[in-house]
Design goal:
Two copies of one chain form a homodimer.
Chain A: E1 13-17, H1 21-29, E2 36-41, E3 45-47, H2 52-56, E4 66-68, H3 69-72, E5 79-83, E6 86-90, E7 95-98, E8 102-104, E9 107-110, E10 114-116, H4 134-153, H5 157-163, E11 165-169, H6 173-189, E12 203-207, H7 219-231, E13 234-237, E14 242-246, E15 249-252, E16 255-258, E17 261-264, E18 268-270, E19 287-288, E20 294-295, E21 298-303, E22 308-309, E23 311-312, E24 316-317, H8 322-340, E25 355-360, E26 363-368, E27 371-374, H9 376-389, H10 396-409
Parallel strand pairs in A: 1-2, 1-9, 2-5, 9-21, 11-12, 11-17, 12-13, 19-22
Antiparallel strand pairs in A: 3-4, 6-7, 7-8, 10-18, 14-15, 15-16, 20-21, 23-24, 25-26, 26-27
Amino acid sequence: MNITSTEKACPPVLVVVGGGFGGLSAVKELDGKPVKIILIDRSNHHLFQPLLYQVATAGLSPADIAQPIRAILRNQENVTVVLDEVKEIHPETREVVTGDLTFHYDYLIVAAGARHHYFGNNDWEPLAPGLKSLEDAVELRRRVLLAFEVAEKAPTPALREAAMTFVVVGAGPTGVEMAGAISELARFTLRKDFRRINPAEAKVILIEAGPRVLPTFDPTLSESAMNQLKNLHVDVRVNSAVKRISEGEVQVNETVIPTRTVIWAAGNKASPLAAMLGTEVDRQGRVKVNADLSIPGHPHVFAIGDMITATYDGGKPVPGVSPAAMQAGRHAAKNILHLIQREPTEPWNYFDKGSMATIGRNAAVAQIGSFKFGGLLAWAAWVFVHLLFLIGFRNRSAVFLQWIWAYFTYGKGARLISGPTGRWGILTLTKHDS
Amino acid sequence: MNITSTEKACPPVLVVVGGGFGGLSAVKELDGKPVKIILIDRSNHHLFQPLLYQVATAGLSPADIAQPIRAILRNQENVTVVLDEVKEIHPETREVVTGDLTFHYDYLIVAAGARHHYFGNNDWEPLAPGLKSLEDAVELRRRVLLAFEVAEKAPTPALREAAMTFVVVGAGPTGVEMAGAISELARFTLRKDFRRINPAEAKVILIEAGPRVLPTFDPTLSESAMNQLKNLHVDVRVNSAVKRISEGEVQVNETVIPTRTVIWAAGNKASPLAAMLGTEVDRQGRVKVNADLSIPGHPHVFAIGDMITATYDGGKPVPGVSPAAMQAGRHAAKNILHLIQREPTEPWNYFDKGSMATIGRNAAVAQIGSFKFGGLLAWAAWVFVHLLFLIGFRNRSAVFLQWIWAYFTYGKGARLISGPTGRWGILTLTKHDS
């Protein structure tokens, strides 16, 4: 950063948009390299997204799975971190524009991720929020915990039952995790906390439009996951499409379910920045990148992570998971070094290390290569891998202790309702004496 | 809760308003006693308020110092916890009214605490928020951390300096803690995080209307605290009155200080519920209780904690600290048992165990009986006492580990900016290239 142009040649400027797994991996790959990096993110923290559902269900605190981006990169001298939201990208003039500032770049990596996809029903978002950011997780935690409070005060059995019904839409990994974790919260953690309701009577309903849960996994694992969900008393409904969401109810196929808590885990849509790159996007708004991860027509612009669509091993779609984002980030960084040295870029091939989804205590599924397994062993593997990945996060030991503690006590450490509790949402309570 | 009136006489109903140190101590004292307790609080958690400044300065996470009230009382069968905000108290008809519900009581303990006192300048509140609740702490943390982000992007030296100026109003224990903690955050934790600013150049200004800091402590300790604050580069200004607070500046005496972060720690005002008890209140809205902590004219209604004014040892005012609230809570509970058994109530006498205020790492003051000391010894005593009091909080070990870690690394674990970061408040940034 202290290079004066009279002494040395100015290094080229790389702007990286997004400090998630993809963007951060690209930046770290370029540590010590002759490039000036500007990393722009609209939040000040990097998020360990695979554990976000734990914050939403009060198992972990926000700070346990988030780390300030500045702190992560404090010793990497060729990076400037900017807290700001990118509004526009202009590949023709090589400019990135935030609300206040304009950044010129020589190279660009866009790693802006994805948000939820409501398939044309954007009015459902406030009624059925999803889970992508810490703010999402804290909001879901507030809704889930408040639902039990509302049930405890509900004046009629019908209102009580609606308050204690939780509908999770979409049975991918996030939906399965949320459904399992809410059921465990109700059946174990909150068991003795209330006087008028029995939290174990909570109904958790998992809705899936397709014929099986975890559709990206092997069918035998879908069946294993289905059985493990049933053991956790989750009511799984496949071949079920959400037709309507309104205050106080969800219509699934022809059935109307009264509920005050709906969680959306049914689909992703790429960041709107994808559409600003001036190239083709698919139905989920994802950029169709070249083999080397650059954008068609703009060899100095790269896109990575959940906002791209790519294939590997001759046609299989790359999944929207953190290992894929990290591999792509490192690969894009290497290709930028090639370009700086006037060498040809290399095509990216995703290396699949396997997939896992956790369902609850001792309950998970995993497929690693041709090995497919469920239950306690898969759960142990899931815990091991997630602790391993938390390396670099200074809170790893705190998370580990929290998990050990929670395993033996079923206690949840972060059961805070943030924000207003005075408004009771859709349930109107009538006066009654205690 | 399972007593049927045909088998046993119905126990009397005690309503407790507020689950802070006072209310919770009263409830716990009545564990197993023949009284049906309804504890009403507007938040779902009990807060370890003495460490709230640590959340506001990113040292601890909200969940580290808060515990769900339901979890604390889950095994005490004679308590029902209600999450609701009390709007009205009617001592004549023995009713407590929330938004939705009306509760009849035989006995009442009001322990609703205090909020900030702006001495008639309530329009200062959004510009200079105080520190009483977790929401307050998260908001202050957001403002403090965001100030450095704004400074990093500021286009002119004047705007940068304003962004890096922090004004704390009021040099009681909270003001001293906040000033010291912000200075340490800037000088140590954030030291290497920025590229354009040097966080150590932040100015922390502590404003006190009176002639010395920590006015409730012995004058020798005020002087010790003053020196310790100076060592931490805090600019302490005594005999300084805030005349005006507006967006972007504070006027102190005749001096105008440009700043975007003002923290209010200058005074307390009792909960508005105090005025509903139909008895005399002092200038800070605090109830003048009888010697037995009951309300004049209502021997079955008790008030405790920060919302009362009381004296001890022949005229000294009882301080607004947690040990006083806890002692009063237990005493009010015992007096209610006396009333139930048709015995006379007993007067309360506060037992002063001493006072401490922390300033920073190795910096504090303490007076315990006739012992008065400052510096490392006082700081060690402060840490010891606060860890001791955290017993009962299941997060004690996590907090302890966090402290040990922070002590050796100067790292702050909870450096999250929650909520919107897109709006930059009072500083308008003009376009400029990176």
